[in-house]
Amino acid sequence: MRDLDEIVRMALEAGFSLAAPLDLATIKLYPEVREMCASDKCRAYDRNWTCPPACGTLEECSERIRKYNRGIIVQTLGELEDDFDFEGMAELAKKHNEKFYAFHDVLHGIFSDVLALGAGGCSRCDSCTYPDMPCRFPHLALSSMEAYGMIVNEVCTLNGVPYYHGPGKIAYIGCYLFD
Ligand code: SF4
After folding, report:
1. Ligand 1 pocket residue status of 136, Cβ below 6 Å
2. Which residue's CA is minimally distant from atom 5 of ligand 1?
3. Is the dihedral of CA 156, 162, 168, 171 positive or negative?
């Protein structure tokens, strides 16, 4: 079994700005977060197999999480010119997602089963097959922490990981669960 510190080290070597162990006992799932998904601000609700409602009820998500014993949190940090630097946000999100997907593949080579919860719905394919055809890569599809009902700030805080990094800074955050 790989040591958790080694996985954290590998995540940092993969380019994340920050990586730390995640205590799975700190994870709580909230229906209120699901309600925010339903308001469809991110334009992913009911458009992707990994977003609500297709990703399952909170009870089903909780059951999935309970299959795992260990995990890590990862962050990609960046700076914005101002609060309206949407281009900067999109660039950083893209960088984070590239690393997040690549490291998911690395972990898949180590563990038989990995649950990766990132920032936003799955974008493995140019266009999701939802709802007409089954998911093309069910073992590689990535959901988000919010889709699972987590308050990302809370998960970070309870694990001693900063969420707010100061004015002009932004962090994209995800976690990986495994055994
Ligand atoms: S792997 Fe492809 S089909 Fe499956 S959820 Fe992701 S984008 Fe959709």
Report:
1. yes
2. 49
3. negative
